[in-house]
Amino acid sequence: MTLYECLSNFKRHSSVEELTATFKELALHFIYGGYIRVNDAYRVYIRSVEFYYHDESDRPDAVKDPIMYHRNSDTCATVPYLPVMSLYAHVSGFDITFENEEQDFRASALIREYSIYDCGRKEFLRLKNNKMRDDRSTYLYDYINVFPLDGKPGIIWVDDEHFPQFGLWQGARKGAYVIKDGKKTKEKDSRQWRFKLNDDIWLPTD
């Protein structure tokens, strides 16, 4: 199944437990299932991903995630829903979205760590600390920053599921805190929605 099909089939969830289990399955697709191709110049391989989910409805079982960037708020109550697999840029990096207007939810995967393959040089670039993995999310702007206006596809996801899936580290999201009454508290958000390729696991793409 392609990543697009997985994200298109994603349905509204009514509990954190259900969401966490589904996100774990999706994380395997993001990390082991392909890469982002940027204008035949670079390939971006995701090494760590964080998930965000915000139910816009007033249902009693709605799971809320107020720290999510792309959602309705007091200042902007009519934020349009993005198509599935939109690349959404914001101050923390890039999200790959899978929102659903009919089911009233926003959902996205933030690229937290990545590797860059240079198609011209036919090699992986040395990034942070001379390593081939970088966890500075906003540095992706150095590579995902050209959007053609001539109608030709410039940045696309390529499904490439030929790597053995060894499993993933799982934990809480970076810098995520509980929001109460519209204000950030000092309590960390403990939801286990971050997944990472273990540092000791080597893939043919590394």
Describe the protein in words.
- Strands 1, 2, 3, 4, 5, 6, 7, 8 and 11 form a nine-stranded antiparallel β-sheet that branches.
- With 206 residues, this protein is mainly beta.
- It has two helices and eleven strands.
- The two termini are 24 Å apart.
- It is globular.
Write the layout of secondary structure elements.
Layout (H helix, E strand, L loop, with lengths): L2 H6 L7 H17 L1 E5 L3 E14 L31 E4 L2 E5 L7 E14 L4 E2 L30 E5 L9 E3 L5 E4 L2 E6 L5 E3 L10
Antiparallel strand pairs: 1-2, 1-7, 2-5, 2-11, 3-4, 4-5, 5-6, 8-11, 9-10
The mean pLDDT is 90
How far the N terminus sits from the C terminus, by CA atoms, comes to 24 Å
Low-confidence stretches are none
Q: Which geometry do the CA atoms define?
A: globular
The major beta sheet can be summarized as:
9 strands, antiparallel
The succession of helices and strands, N to C, reads: HHEEEEEEEEEEE
User: Into which percent range does the helicity of residues fall?
Assistant: 10-25%
Total DSSP helices: 2
**Structural class per helix/strand content?**
mainly beta
Over all CA atoms, what is the radius of gyration?
Answer: 17 Å
- Count all strands and give the number: 11
Indicate the proportion of strand residues.
25-35%
List keywords for this structure.
mainly beta, nine-stranded antiparallel β-sheet, 206 residues, two-stranded antiparallel ribbon, 11% helix, globular, 11 strands, 2 helices
